[in-house]
Amino acid sequence: MNAPEPTAKGTSALTLYGEALPSRLLLGTAGYPSPQVLADAVEASGAGIVTVSLRREQPRGRTGERFVEFINALGVRVLPNTAGCRTVKEAVTTAQMARELFATDWVKLEVIANDDTLQPEVVGLVEAAGILTREGIKVLPYTTEDLSIAERLLAAGCQVLMPWASPIGSGRGLINPYALKSLRAYFPKVPLIIDAGLGAPSHAAAAMEMGYDGVLLNTAVAKAGDPVRMAEAFARAIAAGRAAHEAGLIEARDMAQPSTPVAGTPFFDLGASGDD
Q1: Which residues contact 53 (CB under 8 A, 6 or more apart)?
Q2: Of 115, 127, 120, which Cα lies nearest the Cα of 88?
Q3: Given pLDDT bands bounded at 50, 70 and 90, which one contains residue 132?
């Protein structure tokens, strides 16, 4: 029997809010060339969650309704998000609407501070998270790598954090790896999912090797030359990175360390004549 293909589904389970998910890859649904390409990319990725922006899918005629039907037909958990919201009131209202539309108490919470960087507005994010968690909504907040904000979000009731790697859609990868490592070390038992800014499968593998629990992607897959193959490539990278973390990476060294030590090896005097 052939060995199974190394996809994100082959790693240990990701558990969020007490629910085990089949994959450590979360996939966005915006910007694909066609609905069929999106469906094929979701299948190729093995993603257990797809994110949907309620704001971009307002019903016009039956357009919004058909999109909801299409997303539900993918057979994976739908995670609505509050993309584009810039105030606490706007984010909270959008999350409440999403709960009713998609019949889920999970929401990816975004409160945006800056139009150029799409950086989270962290003060409003904490406030909105507190309001929603008190209503029983399970919040997955899109945040920065700031430790103090992470503490405030956890205190507000969040059980998952989604720090950015770099600005949304930038493809720049992990621009502050030291802060991300600190965040991982400071909250060893909190599920942490890298969200935004990854451009290559190697970026995702690096995040997983750090011990991050998952990765959320959209632009890097949707805008690729071949989104379906790119989705599979990211799935494999995530699986490899997670496997490496679980196996235990060696510590980096400043000097060489021979894999075959000199001590104990036989010594031959090649200059001897052999006549003695």
Answers
A1: 30, 80, 81, 83, 84
A2: 127
A3: very high
Contact 179, 152 (CB under 8 A): no
Residues 6+ apart with CB under 8 A from 162: 108, 140, 141, 142, 143, 192, 193, 194, 195, 216
Q: Are strands 49-53 and 25-28 parallel, antiparallel or unpaired?
A: parallel
List the structure tokens of 193: 């999912």
Overall average pLDDT of the 105-116 stretch: 91
- Residues of 58-97 as b/e, b for ≥16 C-beta within 10 angstroms? eeeeeeeeebbeebeebebbbbbbbbbbbebebbbebbee
Catalytic residue among 108, 138, 189, 223: 108
Backbone angles phi, psi at 102, to 5 degrees: -100, 5
Q: Are 225 and 248 in contact (CB under 8 A)?
A: no
Calpha distance 21→26 (Å, rounded): 10
Q: Closest by alpha carbon to 229, among 23, 3, 7, 4?
A: 7
Residue 88 vs residues 35, 55, 94, 114, 173: alpha-carbon distances, Å: 32, 15, 10, 15, 28
Q: Which of 213, 212, 217 is nearest to 201 (CA)?
A: 217
| Average pLDDT rounded to a whole number, residues 248-270 | 72
DSSP letter at 164 equals -
Q: Do residues 131 and 107 lie in contact, with contact meaning Cβ atoms separated by under 8 Å?
A: no
- The sign one gets for the Cα dihedral 150, 18, 196, 120 is negative
Catalytic annotation present for 189: no
